[in-house]
From TrEMBL:
<dbReference type="InterPro" id="IPR041664">
    <property type="entry name" value="AAA_16"/>
</dbReference>
<dbReference type="InterPro" id="IPR053159">
    <property type="entry name" value="Hybrid_Histidine_Kinase"/>
</dbReference>
<dbReference type="InterPro" id="IPR027417">
    <property type="entry name" value="P-loop_NTPase"/>
</dbReference>
<protein>
    <recommendedName>
        <fullName>Orc1-like AAA ATPase domain-containing protein</fullName>
    </recommendedName>
</protein>
<feature type="domain" description="Orc1-like AAA ATPase">
    <location>
        <begin position="26"/>
        <end position="226"/>
    </location>
</feature>
<dbReference type="Pfam" id="PF13191">
    <property type="entry name" value="AAA_16"/>
</dbReference>
Length: 1048
């Protein structure tokens, strides 16, 4: 059935792919989704400043308008003087390699471009960033995202890391990834603090890589309102890494999900009409009855509406026009629906239709699109022009001395006019309007010729940019990618140069912790090139590449490749101790991941013995450790502090590598074989003293100090001396990856008996930050863990301690440290209980719900029982306190730790309270005898510990002695009064509010027992004030109930 309508002269352009969303801001059939977007945006604006950023997910098949819908949300932000930044993940680099974090990098590039046009706003961003990100952090961040240099002008280009030397400052590459996460977290927090709405759109996250997703997760956890993330993606499996990431962030962030479906018939009709194919007016189509016009429109719309996909509908219309199934006759557009339905396949794929459309372009335009497709979804004119200089001249597309720039732009202008390419705002690059266009353009060349063409492009670009050392990251990865995809056609004479390009690309990736991208380049270098070159002539290069590739595969999670490459390398490095030791370090990391720490320790010690004669016997460990302690003490005492610090630095590379392996074994021992850790650390000290100081010495000396203190066989002053030396040596060596560990050992374990708790908090906070900056997440989190405990036991207000716990717990959740997070949860429960109010109308439990159970780790159980002991005693539940302390004694490994000392003190106090109150009937005479034995042994233990730590243990020992004089000694009330007064004074000096309040309370009960009611009441009021200052509301309510006459 034929039909006619008035023809628009510019029809082909109007219905081109560039006008996929023609009609201005109008969205077809998406009113409900648009409403959800608007609500999400304005909800983000109305949230308080520190609220987590909102996240919007848009899911749907290709062509349903996901990006167009997301850009509608972006328009709200730009209308409010905010920012729309967009990044896109490239289909062609999925599972391969590209510029590291390309999707995020594109978004940051767009942010910088927008800020360059808004100078006043840029100043606000610069000020916020200068407060958060220092010079070294800015330099590191710009290595990952070069476009940020305009936002971080205070960075020093000269301090940029050298890819070949990055292991010197951060020996573990994995630390660099943690550091990048930490700095990006600060960067995101800074830009969100400015207060302008920011919509961060990431397209096609189904093609995102694991490293980029980890950074996106970091940004989502640190961004604050009014920052909104928008992710568009196609249907993906439930186990896709992106969905797993969303599961984690939605615990904290508000997530709205939109699932787009195909359009209904009437919505498809709106699209058809908007393409201006059916301009029905009485003066131009009066010969067609109105009913017939509706019928014609309905049939074509219904025919196309089967798809329900806006992109498919538009492309089918374009195809109908190009195939002349819709044609122009005498200025009018004519079609025959019966013929269309018979000859046009409605089921044709989008790619095949786009391919046909590209084929109708001039040959030069086809070549331009093909060049862009082989480069990626985004290509600069500079690259296209270089390629055009060679290829277009060959095909006679650029003659008569036409400049390369004109050649490049002339090639692409038909595709831009046809809407297949979009030019960037600054006019320096182009990108494909949709990935279907890139796929179709890539397939213009037959499959068997594609790899050869990649190789040819790589050769052209390499020749155009001589001197690979001066290449920018964009150039390097473009060339490396071409050679990686066209490796089969690289000539033998060029192989070594191509290998060097690939290796440099891996170093750039590893420098910014993109281990997946580095693995792709390593895989090409190893499997496609190194297997074809002579090992004897290139032994050093082959060893380096294989070893680095095996290590990188470990961090990338490709463990089978690590094992395979190390096995292959082993047959070529036998007899080379340095290479074998470096290989051993990677092997031990692999074994710890796949077979467990104990197997790695046993294997590592065996290999060290055979390679360099470092022998550590694993039987009779306690005895051997003691002998090693005596030997090391004799060796160390031969030097004073100044001579130790002036010892020569290690120059033997063999022993430096051996000590690196031994230090790794020491770390593994701390987790898997704690009884071996001391022996290994003593061996590290011995080797450093013998062969020269290395970067392993500071933590080894700190461990030695801890062992001196724990053994209690040597003066504690020696432990303090070596802690001082460890800190000074750490500052001299400037080894970034051990700062946090040295802070833990010195300030968290050694100085905890020398200084008041509050004095150790600041150095531990510095250690925590330094650990995060260096990427040493484990030790940074241990610093945070000790800070949380000290905040609680140092007597700071519970509200402040709770805020610190919440801050560090959030970080522990993000960095996946469940054991430390479990300990924090216990103290959160304690604070919640103590801060609660007494419920007079019903029975109230004073236990820590859910904190003590069989599925807890040893560390969690220790803190749970210690916390239950103190809490129950403060709340006058002496029996529960005594029982919890008994359980603590059964499981505690370190009997003289401050946690154990404090629990022992409360255990004695609880036993004395039970004896004083005569509440031992539940145990009979045996219970009374047992309590007296507990008191006797506890007093003896506290007496010895108070000599080691008079500032922290002395006041607690004094309080126990005062209680003992009251309960167990006859007529020693005057002595008890003196001891109470002294304990109160000491607790007040150290600022431990809860123990000062406890001492006043016990002192008051002592006065009341002696008949001095007035003095006792005054002391009770003083205790109440201190409990209230501490924030223990429940204890205050109990005191009011118990002493109503005092608190009227």
């Amino acid at each position: 059935m034929p039909g006619k309508t008035q023809f628009s002269d510019n029809l082909r352009k109007q219905i081109s792919l560039s006008s996929l969303n023609s009609g201005g801001d109008r969205l077809y059939g998406r009113s409900s989704e648009e409403s959800i977007l608007m609500n999400s945006y304005y909800a983000a604006l109305t949230l308080r400043t520190n609220s987590p950023a909102n996240i919007v997910l848009i899911n749907g098949e290709s062509g349903l308008g996901k990006t167009r819908l997301a850009e509608k949300l972006c328009s709200y932000a730009t209308d409010d003087d905010g920012y729309k930044i967009r990044g896109k993940f490239d289909q062609s680099s999925y599972g391969a390699a590209n510029l590291p974090y390309s999707g995020i990098a594109n978004a940051f590039r767009e942010l910088c471009s927008q800020l360059d046009q808004r100078e006043d706003d840029k100043e606000d961003f610069l000020k916020a960033l200068s407060r958060e990100v220092d010079t070294s952090e800015g330099t590191f961040l710009c290595e990952a995202f070069p476009s940020l240099k305009s936002l971080l002008p205070h960075i020093d280009d000269e301090t940029s890391s050298d890819p070949s030397k990055f292991n010197d400052s951060l020996r573990s590459p994995k630390n660099r990834f943690h550091r990048l996460n930490y700095i990006l977290k600060k960067f995101t927090s800074a830009i969100t603090s400015v207060g302008d709405p920011i919509v961060f759109l990431l397209d096609d996250v189904q093609w995102s890589d694991a490293s980029s997703l980890a950074l996106i997760k970091t940004m989502a956890s640190s961004a604050k309102s009014p920052f909104i993330f928008v992710f568009t993606y196609r249907p993906i499996p439930n186990d896709h890494p992106f969905l797993k990431m969303i599961e984690e962030v939605e615990k904290r962030n508000s997530v709205a999900e939109l699932k787009l479906k195909g359009l209904i018939w009437i919505e498809t009709a709106s699209i058809v009409e908007n393409c201006q194919l059916f301009f029905v007016a009485s003066q131009t189509a009066s010969y067609i009855p109105v009913l017939r016009k509706a019928s014609i429109l309905s049939r074509l719309t219904l025919f196309l509406g089967i798809l329900g996909n806006p992109l498919f509908v538009r492309q089918h219309i374009i195809t109908l026009y190009d195939k002349k199934l819709i044609r122009v006759v005498d200025g009018e557009l004519v079609w025959d629906l019966d013929h269309i339905e018979k000859s046009h396949d409605i089921a044709r794929s989008l790619n095949s239709m786009t391919f046909d459309g590209i084929r109708r372009l001039p040959e030069s335009a086809q070549l331009g699109l093909q060049l862009c497709a082989f480069i990626g979804s985004h290509a600069t004119y500079e690259v296209i022009e270089i390629l055009a200089r060679e290829i277009c001249v060959e095909k006679s597309y650029g003659a008569n001395g036409t400049s390369p720039a004109c050649i490049g732009r002339d090639l692409l202008s038909p595709a831009i006019e046809d809407g297949l390419l979009i030019e960037s705002q600054d006019g320096s690059s182009v990108s494909f309007v949709h990935d279907c266009v890139q796929t179709a353009a890539y397939s213009l060349l037959e499959d068997e010729n594609q790899e050869q063409f990649h190789c040819k492009l790589g050769q052209i670009l390499k020749a155009a940019w001589p001197g690979t050392d001066s290449w920018s990251s964009d150039v390097l990865f473009t060339v490396a990618n071409q050679f990686g995809r066209g490796h089969k056609f690289v000539e033998e004479c060029d192989r070594m140069e191509v290998i060097s390009i690939l290796v440099r690309a891996t170093e750039e990736c590893r420098m910014v912790a993109d281990f997946k991208g580095a693995h792709w380049f390593y895989d090409v270098a190893v499997e496609k090139f190194l297997v074809r070159i002579n090992w004897e002539r290139n032994h050093r290069l082959c060893c380096k590449v294989y070893l680095n590739a095996a290590e990188n595969a470990l961090w990338a999670g490709v463990l089978h490749e690590t094992d395979r490459w190390l096995n292959y390398l082993g047959q070529y490095i036998e007899g080379s101790r340095i290479d074998e030791l470096r290989s051993l370090w990677v092997r031990l990391n692999w074994m710890a991941t796949t077979r467990g720490g104990e197997a790695a320790i046993d294997y590592g010690l065996q290999k060290l013995n055979s390679l360099v004669g470092i022998k550590i016997v694993q039987n009779n460990i306690k005895m051997r450790t003691m002998f090693a302690m005596i030997k090391t003490r004799r060796l160390m005492n031969a030097h004073d502090e100044s001579t130790l610090l002036q010892l020569p630095r290690m120059s033997q590379i063999t022993f430096a590598c051996a000590l690196r392996v031994l230090n790794l074994i020491a770390i593994m021992c701390a987790a898997s074989k704690p009884q071996m850790a001391g022996l290994v650390c003593l061996k590290i000290v011995e080797l450093n003293m013998k062969h020269g100081i290395s970067s392993t010495m500071p933590q080894a000396i700190a461990w030695y100090g801890v062992m001196l203190k724990v053994s209690r066989r040597f003066p504690v002053s020696e432990a303090y001396k070596y802690a001082d030396i460890a800190l000074k040596l750490q500052d001299e060596l400037k080894s970034a990856d051990s700062k946090a560990q040295v802070a833990v050992l010195c300030h968290g374990m050694i100085y905890s008996t020398k200084h008041n708790f509050s004095e150790s908090i600041k150095p531990l906070e510095d250690g925590h930050i330094e650990g995060l900056q260096a990427g040493d997440v484990r030790q940074a989190m241990i610093c945070a863990h000790i800070i949380c405990i000290m905040k609680f036991y140092s007597g700071q207000p519970l509200t402040h301690a709770a805020a610190v716990l919440e801050q560090y717990s959030q970080l522990m959740r993000e960095l996946n440290t469940p054991t430390l997070l479990g300990v924090n949860f216990i103290y959160e429960q304690i604070i919640k209980l103590l801060s609660s109010r007494l419920r007079p109308s019903r029975k109230q439990s004073f236990t820590l719900e859910g904190s003590i159970s069989q599925d807890k780790t040893q560390q969690e159980m220790e803190h749970a029982y210690a916390g239950q002991t103190l809490t129950a005693y403060i709340l006058d539940d002496y029996r529960s306190a005594w029982k919890a302390s008994e359980e603590f004694q059964k499981i505690c490994n370190t009997k003289n730790s401050l946690l154990a000392v404090q629990t022992s003190c409360v255990r004695c106090l609880a036993a004395l309270a039970l004896l004083h109150n005569g509440t031992t009937s539940w145990e009979g005479l045996s219970g009374k005898i047992k309590l007296k034995k507990i008191v006797k042994s506890g007093r003896k233990f506290l007496n010895s510990m108070s000599k080691i730590s008079p500032i922290n243990v002395g006041p607690m020992h004094g309080l126990v002695e005062a209680e003992y004089a009251t309960v167990c000694c006859q007529k020693k009330y005057d002595l008890a009064q003196q001891l109470y007064s002294l304990a109160v004074e000491k607790f007040s000096q150290t600022g431990r509010t809860q123990f000062e309040a406890l001492a006043w309370e016990r002192f008051a009960l002592h006065d009341i027992k002696r008949g001095n009611q007035y003095a006792g009441n005054e002391k009770l009021r003083k205790a109440y004030e201190l409990y209230d200052k501490w924030g223990a509301n429940l204890k205050c309510d109990l005191m009011k109930r118990k002493h109503e006459d005092v608190f009227v």
